[in-house]
Specification:
Blueprint: H1 46-63, H2 67-79, E1 87-88, H3 89-94, H4 99-109, H5 113-121, E2 126-129, H6 133-138, E3 146-149, E4 158-160, E5 166-167, E6 179-184
Parallel strand pairs: 3-6
Antiparallel strand pairs: 1-2, 2-6, 3-4, 4-5
Length: 210
């Protein structure tokens, strides 16, 4: 199961040709709890885990039906000091930077933060990013973004638009719409790219992730 450098579980077939990585960003996010202090979620049964992930993906998609929320997330991904501008989902949501997205997810879900993190605790650790380099280089925070999730390669790809409606995707055709992915962690989030030797590129002069 690989989804590093654009060849993820989710995009093995769907985005197999889109494997380029952008240069990392130059600002380190305040991700809250240090990597070694983070507790490992305890996944539930496979069906419960998939249901929880689908719920989280839908809430993220619905939360992004808001211009400030999209711009905030785009800025934070652009600044993430990891290849492909990845964020680890739970630490990001717990951080000051992730509060905008978290607050909207909680409000839209009609639950408390405790409820939302209880759902996340049923899922293995997750990373959140835009796998296709062409999307990272062109998305400036527009509302046409999709959110997709998948736990294992054999699973169906679940995609949601900003209304929370499920969207059918062809595994053999890369989506034209900018697509955010929530998949199991493979990135070493305790090893950020060195900012002194890294710079962002192909980011529309700062208006895209890059």
């Amino acid at each position: 199961m690989k989804h590093t450098n654009g060849e993820g579980v989710l995009f093995v077939a769907l985005l197999a040709a889109l494997v380029a990585c952008a240069d990392p960003a130059t600002r380190t996010l305040g991700l809250g709890v240090p990597q070694k202090a983070q507790s490992e979620p305890t996944p539930s049964s496979p069906n419960e885990e998939r249901a929880a992930l689908s719920k989280i993906a839908r809430l993220v998609a619905e939360a992004l039906d808001n211009e400030p929320a999209r711009q905030h997330l785009k800025r934070d991904m652009r600044a993430a000091p990891f290849r492909e501008h990845k964020l680890e989902l739970i630490p990001y949501l717990r951080s000051k930077d992730g509060k905008t997205l978290l607050d909207r997810m909680v409000r839209l879900g009609g639950e408390t933060e405790t409820d939302l993190f209880a759902d996340l605790s049923r899922i293995r650790r997750l990373e959140f990013y835009m796998p296709a380099a062409t999307h990272r280089e062109s998305w400036t925070g527009s509302a046409d973004v999709l959110v997709v999730s998948q736990l294992d390669e054999a699973d169906a790809i679940v995609a949601f638009d900003e209304s929370g409606a499920e969207v059918a995707l062809d595994r053999n055709v890369a989506p034209l719409q900018p697509t955010l992915s929530i998949v199991p962690v493979e990135t070493r989030f305790d090893q950020p790219m060195p900012t002194i030797s890294s710079r962002n590129a192909r980011d529309k002069n700062g208006s895209a992730i890059g």
